[in-house]
Known about the structure:
Elements: H1 2-24, E1 27-31, E2 34-37, E3 39-47, E4 50-59, E5 70-75, E6 88-97, H2 104-121
Antiparallel strand pairs: 1-2, 3-4, 3-6, 4-5
Amino acid sequence: MLGGVFHAAVLFLVAAGLQLVFGVQKILNLACGSFYALGAYAGRARAPEGDFVAALSVGYRPTFGGTQLRVEAFLLDFEGDLYQKRLELRFLRYLHPDIKFATPDDLVRQLKQDVADTRRFVSR
């Protein structure tokens, strides 16, 4: 029994250490041992309506002083309502780190570039 308690304590310390290390390095562990850096990605999204090319973002929305980690997806060539729908996201190419822009207009310019890059990098 003491061996089991010791083993559990070691696992807890390793997990806590990893959480601290990856939290400080701004790397997100989403699932299954995959690590994602904060920033923009080109990828794909599977929705109930079909499979779409998607510009993806993992970050805190620093331009607007965000404090909550968010994963956002902009589905290219999609019109509709996905509120409360489950999506499967695939991160295919890292575009750039999470950036704090000086103005919202600078952010919009970068988002347009991210969409253009996503179209170029992700085949249909």
